[in-house]
Amino acid sequence: MSKRFNKYLTITLTVLLCFAFSSKLYSKYTEVYPVPETSNTASDSKIIEPIKTHNEGNEGHDPSVQNDEEKSQYQQVTTKAKDFTKDVFINNRLKSTRSQQSVLIVSSLANGNSFGSGRSFEDFVNLIRSLKYDRREVNLAFFCGTQDLYESVITETQKMFDQQSESEFGRVTLIRAPFLDSPFKASEHSPKVQRKRRRLIARARNFILFSALENEPYTLFLDADVEKFDNPEMLEHFISSGKDIIVPRVQRGKLMDYDKNSWRGERKTPSPQELEIMDRNEWSKFKFIPKDVPGKMYHLGDHLKQLKSPQSDPDLARPDYTVELDSVGGAVLFMKSLIFKQGVIFPPYYIIGTTWQREEGYDGIETEGICYAAKILGYKCWAMPNMVAQHVN
Prior knowledge:
The chain has 393 residues and is α+β, with helices and mostly antiparallel strands. The protein folds into 2 domains: 46-57 and 70-224, no CATH class; 263-325 and 345-391, no CATH class. Helices cover 30% and strands 23% of the residues. It contains 9 helices and 15 strands. The chain has helices spanning 2-32, 121-129, 147-163, 191-212, 234-241, 272-279, 300-308, 337-341, 370-376, and strands spanning 46-48, 52-54, 74-81, 85-91, 103-109, 138-144, 171-176, 218-222, 226-229, 245-251, 263-267, 292-299, 323-325, 332-336, 381-391. The strands form 2 sheets. Strands 1, 2, 3, 4, 5, 6, 7, 8, 9, 10, 13, 14 and 15 form a 13-stranded mixed sheet that branches. Strand 3 (74-81) and strand 4 (85-91) form a beta hairpin. The chain is globular and about 65 Å long. It starts with a helix and ends with a strand. Belongs to the ANP1/MMN9/VAN1 family. Keywords: Signal.
């Protein structure tokens, strides 16, 4: 009986030793050759296409064997997510940038007509080139509101990198997000549609900004229908001033102060009856329209009246003269990027007058809510009314 027991014990111990040895051997093997983990990510959630490299005059050349002299001029990286498509063009000819001076120039393009009659995306890029600033320190970002425009801008961007004779624009980011398509025309300013129209504009501005902003310390928003800078050194003045948020004066033909969203003063508030409608969220019945309080509002056109006064201060005529504002417009809007990164956005709702019960307030949507939020964080809004940007007429 004891012999049989000893036999079984010997067999059992042998099996256990073999199992322990094989487990240890497998562990060592996986340390050297890791076993891939399976992913539960949905296959259609995000697809990053292979990087496309472009090298002018080297068709058929294998990019994997490029030396330093043969590097492609740019890379194009395409990301296809569930709700949007993103194309990023990276300029390989720019080896370094002074990151503390770089600027991200951002524009939201509704459609092919956004640039104004007879103008194109190429004209808009040439406007950006007209700024007196080192273009090696400039990155671009464009939100495209239609698929046709998106494809056209991709083609133009490829052409721009292929044909440029000097190094400019370190990175260009393009975004196409169909869920943000707008049914409204750019010229549509009816009070009936302003709430919905400006809500979409704010969402598009935020989407392209946070899709493109990296380490640039400065951001400049430009509307596509700005056609000329009377002061090409405008951006340099904005940066050297040290101010947080700045707008110039926007002129459209004979209208010397076109962007009325840049102001300082008092605005009208809803009546008690209108506030009750807001509390019930009966927005179809809410007819209140934000307006200035007469005699208690300052617009940049008032600066021109001050200049004409015989008793005006000579400092009023200085190119970099600044005046503090409570609200800014968005045709040309300069901001320190740090402000965005702390949570200040373009409010996609009327931020003034909100409560826990109300879906939104009665004033301060999109650019007009920027200063309200930034002020809470200790930042201020300013205008340089002697700096002029021309809007298409």
